[in-house]
Amino acid sequence: MEEEKIYIVGAGLSGLIAALELEKAGFSPVILEASDAIGGRMKTDEVDGFLMDHGFQVLNTAYPEAKRYLDLQALHLKNFEPGAVIFDGKDSYIITDPMRNPLKIVGMALSKVGTFLDKIKMFTLTQELKKKSNEAIFNEPTVPTHQYLKEYGFSDLIINNFFKPFFRGIFLEKHLNTSSRMFEFVFKMFALGNAAVPEKGMGQIPSMIRRQLSKTQIYFSTAVKEIEGKTIYLESGEKLEADRIIIAVQPDKVMKQLQGQFAPARQVINLYFSLQRSFMARPMIGLLPGDHLVNNIVFMDDVSKAYSSNGRSLLSVSVLESQLSESELIKAVQAELESISGVNAEYFKFIRAYHISYALPNLDDLKYSIPMTECKITDHVYLAGDYLLNGSINAAMTSGRTAAEAVLHSYMQTH
């Protein structure tokens, strides 16, 4: 087994999990990573005393795969308060626990966000989904989330003021056309678990998986140009011969025959600003309903103090789409921040922007898991990545494990 050459393309979550599972079975895989760091879409930069995640991301503590692969205590997770701060023009109000404890929502706050009936509907939906298995959720017929919410009987008020801005930030699309399966899964996870970030940033998650690897080699700055049969052609001109290959990046990038098979990914622009102090002063997500450039905001140091070590507050702002130049976008965002907070626009000091062109896969048919056979392209090439299932940390991990199981299964058949 030791002599078998198994290459994994990509050191994101699914590639790292695939390596971990192969190691457990006695193999020593090699990961080829185009960039100079592990983590794929999950990275944290240190800049001027701030920790900045590439895009606003959270870990849901109810994810089954997170419990399987991560030591949640060792990550020193910092939880968000369930709910959201809604910024509605000059007004702002807090809805606490809408999915965790729907009946406890104070009547007053909900009257601006939704109706009494919405509260009851929230409660029934929570109870229904807690009883439903994840597999069952993904076997349901699929309709767009906005249609699902209407058919369930939620009022336009709560759809526009809470569901839209909250789930737009998760699905990274404005109209909630995402499958109701994904909505049910995410809603259930929020009802059961906490949204959290590791104390020192989301990059701690891939780092924790990497520390579990002992026999895997990772080659950085090693971009794969193309895979043909069992041969891997590198951008450097080198070629590698493999026994098995797991492609843990979007495969059309390295396999010519798969080009045109994938819808363009969902994008997000994540801007960071610093401010003397947070105007929210609680570990909550802020939502801007209606038609704004900004979809959601979070003061990251309200959630985990370690995100800022320089005495200033760190504001993460997510923008779903914009045609503006970067300097115009910064100005426009600063103006929106001033209008919701009353804090002068120039006090929001711009630090950095991440234009994330591949933030989430754009999928029609969402699944919770797939049989091993479905991640096998040829006898030697296997696929891993959340695009095979659904856009989530849970799915990235599931797909890495499934690809490794498929490779192991292929050896059982040949030996």
Automatic annotation (TrEMBL):
Gene3D superfamilies, alphabetized: FAD/NAD(P)-binding domain (3.50.50.60)
Domain of life, source organism: Bacteria
Q: Name one Pfam family in it.
A: Amino_oxidase
The record ties this protein, via SUPFAM superfamilies, to: FAD/NAD(P)-binding domain
Residues forming the Amine oxidase domain are 13-408
Q: Recall the GO molecular function terms of this protein's record.
A: oxidoreductase activity
For this entry, the protein name equals FAD-dependent oxidoreductase
Q: Which organism is it from?
A: Algoriphagus lacus
- Taxonomic lineage: Bacteria, Pseudomonadati, Bacteroidota, Cytophagia, Cytophagales
